[in-house]
Amino acid sequence: MSNKELDQLRQRVDELNLELLSLINERARLVQEIGRVKETQGVFRYDPVRERKMLDLIKENNDGPFENSTIEHIFKEIFKAGLELQKDDHRKALLVSRKKKPDNTVIDLKGEKIGDGNPHFVFGPCAVESYEQVATVAESVKAKGLKLLRGGAYKPRTSPYDFQGLGLEGLKILKRIADEYDLAVISEITNPADIETAVQYIDVIQIGARNMQNFDLLKAAGAVNKPVLLKRGLAATIEEFINAAEYIMAHGNGQIILCERGIRTYERATRNTLDISAVPILKQETHLPVFVDVTHSTGRRDLLLPAAKAALAIGADGVMAEVHPDPAVALSDSAQQMDLKQFDEFYREIKKSVLARV
Ligand code: PEP
Ligand code: MN
């Protein structure tokens, strides 16, 4: 073969490479379009039946010189790349992501604008135990000019023999207090079936750490028009946390506050390990407000104040901490709730540090 002939063949190979390139990319664009259709239909998954059909058709039409196994291998790679492309498209476009929405989400809770760049505070008992108990804390919250009150009515307890909360009765107490003191109340809901009822009594639905991946609960919270405070799971990665929020938003509810509450590590000096760097990561990756629960993350009264300062310094939109009129006799988390005097002191100090920041 002459050099000229070789050059011609090589030129033809180059042309075919470019043709393949353009065909592969044309195919990729179609796959992306299919991905978008699937997304609007709410389905988004690998379809092995469809893939098998495509491979069979290709092999039926293969007249060599490549073996069927080689052809199958090459096309499987093309299919895989297409699937990755669909996934990437989807990931890039997470509804909770800053990529999707660059502006901060701001949530209005009775005039308190969560996510507006100012620090916000949620205080209240671990569990609603009685009207008087919650009212005592509400008074102290109100006296500080604060607006947000917490209290658990459904308590997910480690032991089935521990106090499980007052249930609906607890929500009714919270509603009465919210009306009397003009506060916004936050309470954890553990059962999807309770969401519809709960929205009549509370201002924010809390989804607790143990339920961060209770997908039915996330979907139910996504289906109502009520802000949700979503806590990070006990051992959830940031990606899992973000995806849990995505569940709520994908079902129609974008009013979500993320709450870092410590994760389980080998460290036993604190109840959990406060993952403080999660705060700026969540702020960067999502447009949602981020809170830090200093009570459940540290489990230690002596660490509440430094942890709260750290949270605000690193960019948290708010801090949550538990306050009980008489923690020694609290029905849950008695070791870590502040009494009213400690609460006053805590708030005085945190205010000083916030003022120092501005
Ligand atoms: C709570 O805030 O009452 C609570 C139970 O917290 P977590 O879900 O973070 O453990
Ligand atoms: Mn608690």
From TrEMBL:
Any one GO molecular function term: aldehyde-lyase activity
Keywords, alphabetical: Coiled coil, Transferase
EC nos: 2.5.1.54
Pfam families for the chain: CM_2, DAHP_synth_1
Coiled coil segments of this chain: 6-33
PROSITE patterns per UniProt: CHORISMATE_MUT_2
Superkingdom of the source species: Bacteria
GO biological process: aromatic amino acid family biosynthetic process; chorismate metabolic process
Chorismate mutase domain residues: 1-90
Alphabetized PANTHER family for the sequence: PHOSPHO-2-DEHYDRO-3-DEOXYHEPTONATE ALDOLASE (PTHR43018), PROTEIN AROA(G) (PTHR43018:SF1)
Name recorded for this polypeptide: Bifunctional 3-deoxy-7-phosphoheptulonate synthase/chorismate mutase
Gene of this entry: aroG2
